[in-house]
Amino acid sequence: MGAETSPSAAASEPAFAQAPVPADHPGVAELFAVLAYGEISAFYRLAEDAKLSPTLRGRVALASMAAAEMSHFETLHAALEARGVEIYAAMEPFRRSLDAYHACTTPSTWLESLVKAHVGDGIAADFYCEIAGTLAPEVASVVREVLAETGHSEFVVHEVRTAVEKSSLEKDRLMLWGRRLLGEAITQAQYVMAQQEDLADLVITATGDLTNIAALFDRMQVEHAKRMAVLGLH
Amino acid sequence: MGAETSPSAAASEPAFAQAPVPADHPGVAELFAVLAYGEISAFYRLAEDAKLSPTLRGRVALASMAAAEMSHFETLHAALEARGVEIYAAMEPFRRSLDAYHACTTPSTWLESLVKAHVGDGIAADFYCEIAGTLAPEVASVVREVLAETGHSEFVVHEVRTAVEKSSLEKDRLMLWGRRLLGEAITQAQYVMAQQEDLADLVITATGDLTNIAALFDRMQVEHAKRMAVLGLH
């Protein structure tokens, strides 16, 4: 996802030309752990946001997306177990940042919750998939598996497009909301990196250098804009 | 589950000696629909109850149980679609009773939520599995699939047993709680039957007559007591 369709993808080539980050890099367990806590917190955020749904169909759609997050959690649990890492201790350092992201971006309307479910997951997926491209194949395959689409996108796209076609006020509000989601995600990602040395080292090894990290964030913005456009938000 | 281990199982034999309830009985769609709404409401009840958990491990256990409910929902969705039945309209008549069950049995402590997750699901499973034994095989297989254990029982059993071994006050409270869950479940089941003619007809056809329904409720009480005993509540 991401790089192959991005006009600025060429900027990441130096990173991909390097040898892959070895599977025993200490940052790998941290990467799995932050992804695992991401799944749990997404599960509970979706379950909570479903209360804003005006219809039972909407609640079912969010429940199904939430359920998919748990199946990804199980994959990460198994991957950490195989490395002899206790998942609950490993997730602990990431709770504050991820909880802060959700606390700063609690939807106040049903449409905000749908945009967050669609766009927020996409931002995270772009970031991790770019990193995955530079990891040892057995690590990359776990990362890609847990970032697979959680489905029900069609439902979200239809609901949001219909609403913003009817109301330019709603469209303006949701455009701002999308920008805020991207900003908060990048802020919290940087905070996580600053706190977790092994993970930061993995990301820097994966991307090559700081210039490539900047280029990665640029590509994430391009992908974000595309996803917003799919929702009629452009 | 249920009948084969129950000392009073023999009482149901007349029902099983009859020809199976045909797959095109109009109550079958209602049976699938009530099961489907049961899965959705269990999903959101578990997600909500998880807030009472003192640990992340507990929240994960409930999230995993909730996710399993959604996979059962998908099975029922497919089964209703195959019959040309629109699931959301079909579930509508059951919302009030099932929501009332959950509203009357909202846990106020983490242990109450664990007992409800374990024992409440078991009561429903006993009832539907007894009915399944008398249905056409293609219908029975759907019912049995969606009533399969949602896992994580070991976690629940360990948490509850440990707590009640330490505190006889807690044990007394949870014994009463279990009795209330059974009572509310039977009350709401009878209410559903009184409202939904086709489903009531299916249950009566399935069980043979009212004497057999009474025997079924007796067996459910026996199974309930066994499940409570597993939790150290006897």
Q: What report would you give on this structure?
A:
Chains A, B: InterPro entries: Ferritin-like, Ferritin-like_SF, Ferritin_actino. Chains A, B: This is Hydroxylase. Two copies of one chain form a homodimer. Chain A has a single domain, classed as Up-down Bundle (Ferritin). The first copy, chain A, is built from ten helices and no strands.
The CATH H-level superfamily of chain A is Ferritin, core subunit, four-helix bundle
Order of helices and strands of chain A: HHHHHHHHHH
- The counted number of beta strands of chain A is 0
In helices, the fraction of residues of chain A equals: over 70%
Oligomeric description of these chains: homodimer
Radius of gyration of chain A in whole Å, from Cα?
17 Å
Uncertain segments of chain A: 1-17
CATH class of chain A: Mainly Alpha
Determine the CATH topology of chain A: Ferritin
What count of structural domains of chain A? 1
Strand content of chain A: under 5%
